[in-house]
Specification:
Blueprint (H helix, E strand, L loop, with lengths): L1 H12 L1 H33 L3 E2 L2 E2 L3 H6 L7 H11 L5 H26 L7 H23 L19 H13 L3 H17 L5
Antiparallel strand pairs: 1-2
């Protein structure tokens, strides 16, 4: 028991451990929100087009094909994407695990920073990154490319398809715990392009 308490104190007092765990926790919370919002919003906007003021209205088709599957919109949307072949059962398991871990991090963050028995699940971050990439790729492949005349007759490899949210998450991971140099190069290239277009001085 004393050894465990000692390990917890060392974990809480080690600046490198605290910094690393805070970064990982923040990335996992961000990754989960990106996955959740991407799935729910993309599926909803696929079915819903009508606005009342600034509010998007659920269509009958959306209620019939998606919401009727489950009371939770995220899970209902995942089930629809699974039927469409965009996600597999293991992806739904990843999302379920990510939700549980996200809730634990959000409500018990001090324990993850100071309890030797609690660990931020870094492997879950890579799994969520994969899910986000799959969802983005499916919508680009099945919805955006077929409706874009500029893509007519073109063969686009899946490895060349990257959604905005997938790119955002990759940049955040690179900047925080991965390759800051790669994140900096992307930043500089975007700044250069904005300056070239006269959008930024």
């Amino acid at each position: 028991m004393l050894q465990e308490a000692g390990r917890s104190w060392l974990k809480a007092l080690d600046p490198r451990a605290v910094r690393s765990n805070l970064l990982l926790a923040g990335l996992l919370l961000t990754a989960y929100e990106l996955v959740r919002s991407t799935i729910v919003d993309k599926v909803r906007s696929f079915f819903c087009w009508e606005y009342r003021g600034a509010k998007l209205i659920d269509s009958d088709e959306y209620r019939d094909h998606v919401i009727s599957r489950h009371e939770d919109r995220l899970h209902a949307s995942c089930l629809w994407l699974q039927d469409m072949g965009a996600l597999e059962q293991r992806d739904l398991t990843t999302i379920g695990n990510a939700r549980k871990h996200r809730n634990a991090l959000a409500h018990e963050l001090p324990r993850f920073l100071a309890d030797a028995r609690k660990h931020v699940d870094s492997e879950l971050l890579a799994e969520m990154q994969e899910v986000l990439a799959k969802v983005g790729r499916w919508f680009i492949r099945e919805v955006e490319i077929p409706s874009d005349p500029q893509c007519d007759g073109k063969t686009i490899d899946d490895s060349d398809i990257l959604s905005g949210n997938s790119l955002l998450l990759q940049v955040l991971i690179d900047a925080a715990i991965g390759s800051p140099g790669r994140a900096s190069k992307l930043y500089e290239s975007v700044v250069g392009e904005l300056r070239r277009r006269g959008i930024m001085s």
